[in-house]
Amino acid sequence: MRVRLEDVARAAKVSPKTASRVLNDEANVSEDTRKRVLAAMEALDYRPLSSARSLAGNRSFVVAMLYDNNDNPTSTYLAEIQDGVLEACDAHRYSMMMRPLRMRDDDFIRRLDALISDHHPDGVVLAPPLTDYAPLLKRLRECNVAYACVSPESGGCIGVRMDEQAAARAIVDHLLGLGHTRIAHVLGMDGHGASRWRLAGYREAMAAAGLAVNKALVVQGAFTFGSGVAAARKLFALKNRPTAVFAANDDMAAGVMWAANEHGLKVPGDVSVCGFDDIPLASQLLPALTTVRQPSREMGRVAGLQLLESLRGRSAGLMVQIPFALQLRGSTGSIPS
């Protein structure tokens, strides 16, 4: 027979109402009581009917993760954020759904309204660049849907961010410390917050070293492998080519390394290459890629937790700053003699 909530309450020696409050993750339940009820649920293998739980709590217990795959095509990055959000949801018995919403589509708001109407998410986690898309944020507020942001440019919201400008400066400082002065930068997607932060860090490091930024060494990319190849071809065709290239993400850095091989250039003997994010590909390249470690999975988990804390009324939610770390590997070396 199916285990009932009354059976859980009896095993935990609490009232069915208290067991229901624990199940619905409500506040004003002591931690000791919460642990006893959760332990009883686990021991009895209790599986609540989602429909009954939603009716009892007047909530859907669903969190939606929204992303724009047109402007954020690095699937590994999105997958890691998704895994982190899912981990947070699982820990609090929430379900998670993913939906792409393309900002450039004419029916953007209509599709958002349909998602809210059809699925009634209690809250949403936004991946960049949706984090800063004003029409989306305005509509979520109008519909009274709570949201948390991953790496937003603007303030006034909850979620998680990393100091990407400082991280970009640190990795360019690494190249400068190896003796490089002709350092190129492959930009990310035009208009993307991460692109602006990483360019700002590059410029800041060059200025601190007393070096002017050569416009010919700053080439537009789009966060994709192919755009990294195209940008690198332009750089390596220059009469006075760069001795080092900082790409705004690892996919483009991999494209730069591919183009270097195409031009008969050795990495790092002829040109040093570094990226940003530290996706799994970075350590699988030969040589392995020097990059900035951005803990995307942890960022997704933290954003999810801040959203859930807000939904449960335990706090207003915070904007949490996550530290970065440089991963120094074989793709960078001293300036060629």
Structure, explained:
With 337 residues, the protein is of the alpha/beta class. It has three domains: 53 residues, lambda repressor-like DNA-binding domains (434 Repressor (Amino-terminal Domain), Orthogonal Bundle), CATH 1.10.260.40; 130 residues, Rossmann fold; 131 residues, Rossmann fold (3-Layer(aba) Sandwich), CATH 3.40.50.2300. It is built from 13 helices and twelve strands. Helix 5 packs parallel to helix 13 and helix 8 packs parallel to helix 9. The model has no long low-confidence stretch (mean pLDDT 88).
Q: Which properties best describe this structure?
A:
single chain, 337 residues, alpha/beta, 434 Repressor (Amino-terminal Domain), Rossmann fold, 3 domains
Describe this structure in a few short sentences:
The chain has 337 residues and is α/β, with parallel strands linked by helices. It is 45% helix and 15% strand. The protein has three domains: 53 residues, lambda repressor-like DNA-binding domains (434 Repressor (Amino-terminal Domain)); 130 residues, Response regulator (Rossmann fold, 3-Layer(aba) Sandwich); 131 residues, Response regulator (Rossmann fold, 3-Layer(aba) Sandwich).
List the helices and strands and how they pair.
Layout lengths: L4 H8 L3 H8 L7 H14 L5 H8 L4 E6 L7 H17 L3 E6 L7 H12 L3 E4 L7 H9 L3 E5 L7 E5 L1 H14 L5 E4 L6 H16 L9 E2 L5 H12 L7 E4 L2 H13 L9 E3 L5 H5 L6 E3 L2 H16 L7 E4 L2 E3 L10
Parallel strand pairs: 1-2, 1-3, 3-4, 4-5, 5-11, 6-7, 6-8, 8-9
Antiparallel strand pairs: 10-12
Helix pairs in contact: 1-2, 1-3, 5-13, 8-9, 10-11
